[in-house]
Design a protein that fits this description.
Layout (H helix, E strand, L loop, with lengths): L1 E7 L12 H21 L3 E6 L14 E4 L2 E3 L8 E2 L4 H13 L5 E3 L2 E3 L1 H11 L7 E6 L9 H15 L5 E7 L16 H8 L7 H20 L9 H13 L10 H8 L6 H14 L2 E11 L4 E10 L1
Helix pairs in contact: 2-4, 4-9
């Protein structure tokens, strides 16, 4: 058994934003370091901890956590659309072990995932089907949110089970950090938006998907220009989160309330739940060290953008 962790922000705007040259250079250097780290580790299995953006999970039934026994990428924002190589027996064993460890979760025999799950695999490998992958959905956009201590306990249960496998396992945590993109919210949704949030509208037409994506692209352009009304980034909050995660003691995060996270760092800051679960999973296997850390608030991506690589000591 060997575990390693790549925790990284994702952004559907990576292929659409007009980034300053120094920022794009920094990002490519960070992605190059991630590729080197992952290719040197050469995992037998990837366990992906990711959110969803009302593409696969909807308010008609919104679990806090869900493990996929099979999964398909829908291909939003130009991401790769494909059937993922999910080893069903390993996914089932993981789900059963987590539940036996006292953490309730859902399972899916036909999970749909979006860019939030697959973008890191595209960056690392160029093909999301390159490695066997178990997707773990963590609700990060649809209130009410489970307390962070439950996210930590989920990660610890996942990590304990993975230590029993005779495999090299790469954990990928995909999301965050502070950001507040224009995602519809149930409390203020129009009737059409409410139907979409509930999953009653059916799969969006190509035209509807393009229009939805264009709204985000336009909001990012306005945000970079300082004319958008979305909430600002929170670099100090981001860096405090990264400091706690790197410390190896995640229990201080148990006191972070969802309402305060939203107020300080935006409605989509809850994607950091994927980071907390990933670090907790690695910590369940032993003490760890952050071997590479990148952070920059990038308004063109509407994100406090971060990337860390982490290994067991």
């Amino acid at each position: 058994m060997t575990l390693a962790l790549l925790a990284t922000s994702h952004s559907p705007l990576l292929e659409y934003a007009d980034l300053p040259e120094d920022v794009s250079g920094e990002l490519e250097a960070a992605f190059a370091e991630a590729r080197r780290f992952v290719h040197d580790f050469d995992p037998d299995l990837v366990v992906n901890l990711g959110p969803d953006h009302y593409n696969g999970f909807f308010y008609r039934l919104m679990p806090a956590f869900c493990i996929g026994y099979a999964a398909t990428s829908i291909g939003d924002y130009g991401s790769q659309a494909a059937r993922l190589d999910v080893p069903e027996d390993l996914a089932r064993n993981l789900a059963e072990a987590v539940i036996a460890d006292g953490v309730d979760l859902a399972v899916s025999l036909d999970m749909e995932v979006d860019h939030g799950a697959v973008q890191p695999m595209e960056i690392l490998y160029g093909d999301i089907t390159t490695k066997p992958l178990i997707p773990i959905f963590i609700n990060s956009v649809a209130p009410p949110f489970t307390p962070l201590n439950r996210v930590r306990l989920l990660g610890e249960a996942v990590g304990r089970h993975l230590t029993t496998l005779d495999k090299k396992v790469l954990l990928i945590s995909s999301g965050g950090l502070s950001h507040d993109p224009p995602v519809p919210r149930l409390a203020t949704a129009t009737s059409d938006q409410r139907r979409m949030l509930l999953g009653q509208a059916g799969p969006p037409s190509p035209e509807a998907r393009v229009a939805r994506q264009q709204r985000v692209i336009d909001a990012a352009r306005d945000f970079a220009a300082g004319t958008a009304t979305i909430q600002d980034l929170a670099p100090e909050w981001d860096q405090e989160l990264m400091r706690i995660l790197a410390s190896g003691d995640l229990t201080p995060l148990d006191a972070w309330r969802p309402e305060e996270m939203t107020r300080i760092a935006g409605n989509s800051s809850h994607e950091v739940r994927t980071w907390i679960a990933g670090y907790a999973a690695l910590g369940a296997a032993g003490e760890y060290s952050v071997t590479y850390s990148y952070y920059r608030p990038i308004r063109e991506l509407i994100a406090g953008f971060a990337l860390t690589t982490v290994t067991l000591d």
